[in-house]
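Input set for joint prediction.
Command: fold jointly, output tokens.
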Amino acid sequence: MSIVTSVPPPTVPGAAVQIPPARPSSIPGPFQFLGRSLRTLWANGKARIGLVILGLDILVALLAPLIAPHSPSATTFPPYLSPNGTNWFGTTGNGQDVFSQMIYGARISLLVGIIAGAVATFVAVTIGLIAGYRPGIIDEVLSFVTNLALVIPGLPLMFILAAYLKSRSVWTIVLVVAFTSWATGARVIRSQASTLRTREFVTSAQFSGERLFRVVFREILPNMTSLVAGSFFAAATAAVMAEASLEFLGLGDPNTVSWGTILYYAQQQNALLTGQWVMIFAPGLAIALLALSFTLVNFGVDALSNPRLREKS
Amino acid sequence: MMGTGEVMTLLDVQGVNVVYEPNRGTRIWSVREVDLVLKQGEFVGLVGESGCGKSTLGFALTRMLRAPARLENGVIQFGGVDVASLSGEVLRRQRRNGFAIVLQSGMNALNPVRNVEDHFADILKAHARSGERHPRAAVRRRGAELLGKVRLDPDVLAKFPFELSGGMRQRVSIALVLALEPRMIVFDEPTTALDVIVQKAVMKTIQELQQESGFTAILISHDLGVVLESTNRVMVMYAGRIVEDQPSKGLVRGLHHPYTEALLHCYADPRAEEIHLAGIPGSPADLSLPLSGCAFAPRCPLVQDICWKVVPPLAPLGGGLAACHVRAPSDKVTGAKEVAAKVAQT
Amino acid sequence: MRQVPNGELAPGKASSVPPVVVDGVSKIYRVRGRGSGTFTAVDNVSFTIPPGSAIGLVGASGSGKSTLAKMITGSERPTSGSIRFGELAVESLHASGLRKYHRRAQMVFQDPYAALNPLHTVAYTVTRPLQNFLNMSAAQARDRVHELLETVGLTPPGQYAAKLPHQLSGGQRQRVVIARALACDPELLVADEPVSMLDVSLRAGVLRLLADLRANRGLSLLYITHDLLGARVITDEILVLHKGKVVEQGKTKFVLQNPKHEYTIQLLDAVATPFAAAGA
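tokens >
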């Protein structure tokens, strides 16, 4: 018997994709990752629209002091005015300029949306990864807690927490929202982690001598980028809506200016009766658009976990 | 060459090209200029390795290609009708008493929440001609009859896919296809996903079925042994083209296309006294590039200058055809015959 | 074509690798749901892998061969019986002991598409065992990685080191898997169907590689497959498994030419070779 491979392989045109040796990049790793991710997201049509809307919101929030014509809380104008030359969106019952309030309001909504979303996702990833990777008693306990958190109605729980907590600040809202929206993400992440755990490349990593920490964070988690990003955008969407709801019901800080508080005051001051449509529609539309932008960007996250789509950028 | 004038030509394919065009990434020409003619009742094997285009060709012939794959051009005359130009309902009607395909994984082809009888009812209803009725009793009778053809008991009708073994699921897939009384069936790697012993049994059933029912069959496989055992004619594909077309019995002896010969040397009988097992050095050609000349040239032991420049057409070799300037020089290619003669002398 | 004696080591080359002794190993799974309570994947199997030899475990799916492989490499624990690698009792290893064991006993997986993390380069995958087991620094590892890639036939190594799995063909991926397994210089290599997912034209190359590694490094090889041709080409001895039991065992060539058990005969019959088909 013999095994023959005869002559050395001749070169086949195009058979081996030539890769130029990688030059050490001057951009630090995490920023490269961010740049690449943004490019991947931008490639998807729906995500692109979402990124544009989100970008505009962020810009407005950052440049608020420069763009807003007046101070949002100054009660210098005649109250209950319809849109006019000075006050493009009219004024509130306290004589504040609605347009300036809308501009400054972007800050709070974005802040709460992104931070609450991030905190919720962080909790979800931690719990989901641990539960998914370690079957047995740990998984049982964590799954039980997750299911419990899922079953309790989120909004009522939020109201109770917000009403119960003594301090009324934006951070309270962030924590309350994060606390009630981590469960969905945790469940999905646990499910995916548990699938990936049995994949051969994970077993292969174990054979390479990798310890638990590295297996979870360098083998499994990178393959779940899409899922984590998806969870984040979903949580951020929910956070924006939840924050607006809490503010609208008066459970937020009435002294901060946000789109939710504008709606709160609109309700308190019977904006429907005084004919101030803009005061109702503008914040409502803005909240909806922000939430929509997160959802749209979510359409593009599937590509993040696929290395095939990276090289063409 | 093959068959007499009495046997009808069922499939006449001219110039089929299939291109994959993903949104991001390169275009790949996976089937290039394929011509073939099948007569009614033939059992043909289509053999090749990964990426040679055999499954793509099978899907193209049965009009099953989905984006990003596209039938670029070509004529597919099936029973006199050019199905390449059909679409919509007219195309769908061709699947009754026309052509059909059996896919690789029986599990994926069956609906996991419906039992086998429901599958039969569904397919009979979907392709019923006007005026045809299929009450439950009739479905059951026809189902039992078809299951019998694939050597399964009628009590399989009541079962769900998860209750069946891999081999049984594949047989059910075949029985479902038979319900359409097809004149041609394409089997795309029907036994690859099965256990090696079950493979043999299912292939035997397919062979017997083809002989009994007389439908034309195309067996797509990467396994030359399986193909030679069951078929009466075999076509070898490489880099999107058919490079050899021979009666199955003649493939083991004599001279053939260098790729076919190399492929044969990759197989051996484990019981033999001495085993010479070979591989084929190099890698398959990059199909995203337009290739000039013969795609196998970089790996061919008989390569000549002309091979790099001119694509060899299929020309007579032994009992069939081969696309090789050296082994089967064609009259249409200037200089080919001289080159072949020179090589034959050395 | 060169003649090489059927799988035997060149005479005079002794191996310092300890033998693997599998003694009365069984694996019984408890099955929930309808039906019986237990499923016996492996039933009282005993055999030895002598130092530096190549043993084949042959059988169809469900025969228990993969489960046996997992128990020998420590990924699963037997329900009963013992597995000894020299003095080491493999069946009772825990986390850190298992890590040390992996330094000496490595596995080559079946599916080259699944065995590599799609996000890691070839260099990363092959470097990790060097860093974990041999405590090499990144610079030292780089040279060794190039050496390993050359050993498995991926030349020039510099070109392959930066690639991601989806840029490689199936045969190339499998070679990367083998390179990773070889990185820490193991004494035992368990290959679970290493060529069954490769094209036939690529199989001889990978089989040759495994045979050469065995001959040159004196490591023991456990080759698991349903493909009798592969077993014939690189193993000295085979065990035929059916439903968890060993039904036939002996020198490879002898068993294949003189099968006694009905299942072995069935397996041989199921092999479709072009030559057998044409009656050549």
